[in-house]
Protein 1
Amino acid sequence: MIRGLRLARTHPMDSRLKLLTIETPWCNTRRCPIENTQRQSRFGMTVWVRNNPRPLSAALAAVCFAALLIAWAFWQFWDIVWLRGGLAVVLGLMLAYAGWLLWQLSRPRIGADESQLYLFLTAGRAIAVPLEHVECFLLGQAAAMMDDSKRETTTLSLRIAEKAGEFQQRNVLRALGSWCGGYVTVRGTWTQPLSVDLVRKLNRELAQAKEQLAANQA
C-alpha cells in the first residue's frame, strides 16, 4: 500500500479536481481486523460503494406520475383510435424507462469479487478492472455536472497502475465521472456520502482483497 500519499499535479480530465492527502498505513489483517460492513448485491459481487438513490428516485417518481396521466388519457380517449395508438406507444416507452431507472437503482457504484473491481459508470454493463491493477483510492473535489452552475462535489478517485495500458482511459458517462490518464473519478453526486473514513476503509479492503488474491494464486 501507499503511506502518506500526496498528489500535487492536476488531474488530467478536470483542471479543477483537487486530490486530498490520505494517510493509508499498511494494514496486516491479523493485527488489524477489518470490520465487515460490505453487503452482497444481486449482481453476485460485494458492494464497496453504494449509489445515491435520490436523483434516480426523483426521476422515477416523475416518470410514474406522467405514466399515470397518460394511462388516464388513454382511458378517456379510448374511442379515438389514432390518439389511443399514440398514447399506447408513449405509455410503453414511459414504462420501459421506468424499468431502466429501477435497474439503475439496484446497481451499486463500485463492487468487487475475488479478482475484479466493477465500476458502474455507464448506462450499460459495469467495467471490470483486475484488482492487481488498482493501486489506491483518493478523495477529491470536482464540478458536480448537475447544471450550468459552478458547484463542486466530493469525488472518489482510483489510480490505475501504468502497466495496465488497456485501462488508462475508457468512455464513461460524464455526469457520473471521468476516466483518463490512469485515474478514474467518480462524482459524489451519484454515490453514497464520501468521506476520509470511507476512503481509508476502501484502501484497507483493497489491500485485503489483493492479499487474498495473491494467496489464492500461490
Note: Residues 81-106 form the longest helix (26 residues).
Protein 2
Amino acid sequence: MSKLRAIPLILGLFVIGGLFCGPYKAFSQEKVKDKSMFKKMIRLFPPLVPVDTVNVYVIGDVMLHKSQMDKEYGPFLEDLSRYACSADVSVANMEFPLGGKPYTGYPSFSAPTDYADYVASMGFDVFLAANNHIMDRGTPGLDKTLDYYAGMKGVRFTGAANKTVADSTINPLIINAKGIKIALVNFTYGFNTGGPEEGRTVHMMKKEDVAEMMARAKAAGAHFIIALPHWGEEYVLKHNSRQGEWAKWLAEEGADVVVGSHPHVVQDTTYVKTKDGRKVPVVYSLGNAVSNMSLINTRLELAATISLSRTFLGEVKFLGIHLDWLWCTLPGKLTDSYKTVVIKEYEGKRDLWKDPSDYDNMIESLKRVAKATGIGK
C-alpha cells in the first residue's frame, strides 16, 4: 500500500480509536441501548467495514446430442470452468435425463451419468431439473436422474423431486453463501412427453405452484430470490407476451432476478419495476451452453453473473448482474471437438481458428443478436 493511500486509513483508525478507546464510558453496555450511533460511524468509514461478496454464475442449456457423444467431453465447458469455480454458486440447466441405455440425443434424450460428472467437474454445483426434456425417458428416467444427482458429492439440484429427497427441502433450493441466503426457484412450461407418476414432482409454470415455492423461500428467510423459468418460444430473439406477464408477476411475488432458458437462442433483457419500487432484472433467455445445434443464432449464448454483498452490519445488497457473450464452436471450427468460448477472450484472435470463417460467423452473430435484443446498449 502506498503512503498516500495509507493516510486516510490511519486517520480513520485514529478517529475510531478515539471514539471507542477514549470516552469508553460513553459506549459502555449500560449506557448504549441504541446502536444507531455505532451504525452511523460504520457508514462514515465504509472502507474499514468488512464486506463479503457472493457471485452466482448461471449458464443456459447443457445439451448432449448424439454427435457430441462421439467426442471427449473435456473441451466442451473447459473455458467456463474458471468462472464456475471462482463463483460461490454455479448453476447449469441440465437439458436431459440420465435415463440409461441406449443413450440417445434429440428428440428424446438420455445421457450417461459420466456427463453429469463432467459438468460437475467443471465447477457447476447446482443442476436445474425442471425442463421439457427431463421426462424424455418417463418416470423411470426421472428417478434415475434425481437419484444420481442426490448421490453426487458437492452437487445440489432443484426443479424436481422424487421419493429420495423431499420436495419442500429443495424447491426452492436455499443456499447459504457467506451468510447470504439465496433461494433458487426453477420450473418449466411443460414436457415433450407425459408427466411424472405419483410420488414425483417436476415444478410447472403454474402460479399456485410457483407462489408456494416463493412463499417457502420467504419463510426460510431468503435474502435474495432468483427465479429460473424454462419458458418462451424456441429460436425467437424476443420474449413473448406470456413471458412478459410472468416476469412482472414473479417480480411482484418477490423475485429479485429472473433468468430464463429454453428458446435455444439469446433473448432480450429488461428491468421490471415493482409496486414497492424495486427494479428487477429479467434475462429472458441465456440460450444454449453447449450443443450440436447449428441453426442461425443457436450457437451464440450468454452466461450471467449475479453479484451480492453482505456488510459488517448484515445488510445484503444486490450489486448487479453481468452478462458475458459465449460462442459454441463445433468440431473442426476451433478445435477437433465442441468447445464453448467466452467471446471477449477470443476477439481479435481469428488466427486461432482451424476454420477462420467460423470466427467471422461468431462476430457477425454477436452484432446481429446484440442489435436485435438490445443487449449491450
Note: The radius of gyration is 23 Å.
Protein 3
Amino acid sequence: MRHRLFLLLSTTLLALMLGACAAPATGDGAPQEAASAPTAGSLPRLDDSCRVDSDCEVKNVGNCCGYFPACVNTAAEPDPEAVMAECADSGMASVCGFREIQACSCVSNRCEAVSPSIVPLEQQG
C-alpha cells in the first residue's frame, strides 16, 4: 500500500514539474519555442545569423538565473543585466544550469553550439 502511494505521489510530482517546464501555447494553439531569456518588454532578440563559422561566438546572453552562454553573431551585444531586470519585473524564472559550449558553428545560416564528438582513446604502449 505504501509503495503504491509513494509511486502515485512521485508520478504526480514529476508530472507537475514537467508541466511547469512546458512552453506556453500561442493564440493559435501552436506551442512557442522555448527561450533562454525573456523576450517580452524591451529586450531585443539577439542576432544569431551567420554565413561562416567565424561569424559566430559564445557569449553570455543571461537568463533569469544569471550566466547563460549561447552562440550568437560576433556583432551581437547581449545585456545579461537587462535580462535579469526583465525577469525580476515580470516575475519570470528559469531553470538554472546550462551546458558548456566549447565552440560555435554556422549551420543553415544560424549560429549553433558545436556538439562534442566522441573520439575513442587510442591504446598506448
Note: The first strand starts at residue 56 and ends at 60.
Protein 4
Amino acid sequence: MSIKSTVTMMKSCLLLSIIAPAMCCATTDTRLGIHHGKRVTHTQFPYFVGLREKISGLYRCGGTLISKDTVLTAAHCVYDFSPTLIANIGMDRRRPLSAMESIEVKKAIIPAKYGIIDGTYDIALLKLKHAVTATHTYMKLKEWDVANNADVYSIGFGLTSEGGYSSYYLLGANFKIIDWYEHCSGHNYPKNYPPTNFDPHYHLCTQSYPDHGDSGGPVMNFHDGQFYQVGIVSISLLRGGQQTRVSAYYDWINAHK
C-alpha cells in the first residue's frame, strides 16, 4: 500500500516491514528489512491483522488487534476508505489466504490532524462489524518510550527482496531504534529531498526501511516475556524508517477503542 501523494510516495516507496524478537539475531545492517525475515505463524502472533479489499482481494496493509473489535493500523492505509475492507485476524499466508477469522470493517477513526502529504499523525483505528471470536489474545501497547539502540521486531507481507515480490507468507525480523537527528531529521539529506517532518515526540526512527505491504504493521519491543507494540510502520526516509510512536497516542487510542 503506497501513500497517494508524490511526496509521500518518494518517502514510502520502500515501506518498512521491520523485524524480530529482541533476544535474537540483532543486526547492524541499516538496510535490513522484512525481506530478510523468517516465517512466522498465527500461533505466534494471533493478533496480527491483514487488511484486504473485499471485492478485489488486494492486500492493503497490516495492523494489530488491540481489543475484541478494534484494529490499530496506519492512517495512510485507510484514509480514503473507498473499497470495503476485510480484516483477516491471525493472517499468516497471503496466497492462498490463511487466517483464523475474517470480518468486515465497519468504520475507520483517523485523527483530524492527519497529514496526507507529510504523513503526520499516521495512525488509525478500525472498528469491526462484530467482535472477534477466534482469539482473545490482543496486542499489548507500550505507554512508555523505548530508548535509542533498543531492539525491536516487526512482521508483515512486504517485499522479500529489493525490487522483488511481496511475500506469500508472514515474515518477521529484528532491527533497532536509532538516533533520530542523525538518521531521520533530514539535516544531512540532499537539498532536493522533501522535508521529513520528523517529530521525536510523535515518531520513532528505526534502522530498517519499510517495504510495500508492511505499512500499518507493528513495531514491537520484547519486555518482561512478551511483545509490546511501540510503533506503527509508516514512512521510509532516505536513511531510516519514520514510524508512528504509539506512546504519543496512548490516550487517543484508549478514548476511541
Note: Residues 1-33 have pLDDT under 50 and may be disordered.
